[in-house]
Design a protein that fits this description.
With 251 residues, this protein is mostly helical. Helix content is 47%, strand content 9%.
């Protein structure tokens, strides 16, 4: 899966906030170490020493990505032979603090959160907060490690709503890919045991009526067993869709 320029915004702001006066080259090194780009992102550009990933980092400056939203200021300095430096703005620091919980979601699972982050930025420009729902949090229902209680509660509500949506009248909920039924196989011990898989990024804006959010969100998640879920995400550069998984087991 390719890393998008949009996905670099929050981690870049984090590094800028921790390293006042950081250069683009230093930022590139830190982001490269963090994301460890592979595949197309690691390819060297023709006639250049930069990789495609490095160019995306440089585009944060050339496209005015951070400055356009008022997140950071680039100071070119007085010496034209030296690199300029980045400094985070108060608006950027506030944006980072409000969305710090989303950085882990953007990095760890390597899911495509670009759509959600685009919305975060747009809503931030309008003075509103928005929260990414992290799939790992939904799966690990009992774990609150490094997560805010509000994120846990949002994800727990979504999980419960999804189970209610997909459970049949007899209380069974099957993997939508292979059809495995934990209740049928393990009896009561397997009741409601399932992974709720996000088919696309989910996000909730502050002020959105809770019922309306859940009704929309459950349409974008699917029940899958742990085996199928592991296969969906086995290759970090190629997340399979539900249909692609079904074709694998039923060619």
């Amino acid at each position: 899966m390719r890393i998008t320029e949009t996905e670099l915004i929050l981690p870049a702001l984090l590094f800028i906030s921790e390293n006042d006066g950081i250069t683009t080259s230093e930022l590139k090194e830190k982001l490269t170490e963090l994301f460890q780009p592979t595949g197309e992102d690691a390819e060297i550009l023709a006639g250049r020493s930069d990789s495609k990933f490095s160019q995306k980092v440089r585009n944060l400056k050339s496209h005015d990505t951070l400055e356009r939203h008022g997140f950071a200021i680039y100071d070119p300095g007085e010496d034209p032979s030296s690199e300029g430096t980045w400094r985070i703005t108060e608006h950027g620091r506030s944006f980072l603090e409000r969305n710090i919980e989303n950085i882990d979601a953007l990095i760890s699972a390597r899911l495509n959160y670009s759509e959600a982050l685009d919305t975060i930025i747009k809503e931030s420009d309008q003075g509103r907060n928005i929260h990414v729902i992290d799939e790992n949090l939904v799966i690990n229902e009992g774990s609150r490690q490094n997560r805010s209680s509000s994120s846990y509660e949002r994800s727990d509500r979504l999980r419960r709503a999804a189970i209610e949506h997909y459970r049949n009248e007899d209380g069974h909920i099957r993997c939508c890919i292979c059809g495995f039924d934990f209740l049928e196989t393990y009896g009561g011990r397997g009741r409601d045991f399932i992974i709720i898989h996000h088919e696309k990024p989910l996000y909730e804006t502050e002020g959105v009526e809770r019922t309306a959010f859940l009704e929309q969100a459950v349409q974008d998640v699917k029940p899958v067993c742990p085996n199928c879920h592991s296969m969906i995400h086995r290759n970090m550069n190629e997340t399979l869709s539900i249909e692609e998984m079904r074709e694998l087991i039923n060619p």
